[in-house]
Each structure stands twice: as structure tokens, then as C-alpha cells.
Amino acid sequence: MINIMKKTFSTVVWQEDEWFVAQCLEVDVTSQGKTEKKALKNLREALALHFNVPGRYCFAKRPKD
């Protein structure tokens, strides 16, 4: 059984030229994307990698059974 702790983080998103930048305020992790949605998705992935969650993104939506 895997216990997954959920945590909510504050983020700031801004646009620099053609890119959207998403930054987590509690953890020094930042990502980017061509859209705001993509920047936030990339930030979730970066946070999962930062916290070293093997095999899944802990901030992604649960897959449907």
C-alpha cells in the first residue's frame, strides 16, 4: 500500500514574451509552457520530480479505474 500525502502550494504565473512561467512559492521550483495551463502542468511534474515520487505525479489527477 502506498500512502500519498497531498499538499496544496501557492503558485504565481506570469507571461514573458511567448512563454508563461509558473513558480511555486513554498518550494524553489519553476517551470514554463506556451500556455498558462501547460506551464501549470509542467510545474506539477517538476514538483513531483523534486519530491521524488517514483512512478507517478503526486499532483496529477487520479486516473479513472
* Uncertain runs: none
The residue-averaged pLDDT reads: 83
Q: Give the proportion of residues in helices.
A: 10-25%
Task: Tell me the radius of gyration.
Answer: 13 Å
How would you sum up the major sheet? 3 strands, antiparallel
Task: Output the number of helix runs.
Answer: 1
Strand percentage lies at 25-35%
Which shape, going by the Cα principal axes? elongated
Judged by helices, strands and strand pairing, the structural class is alpha+beta
How do the strands of the widest beta sheet line up side by side? 1-2-3
- Could you give the count of β-strands? 3
Strand/helix succession: EEEH
N-C termini distance = 17 Å
Attribute tags:
alpha+beta, three-stranded antiparallel sheet, 1 helix, 23% helix
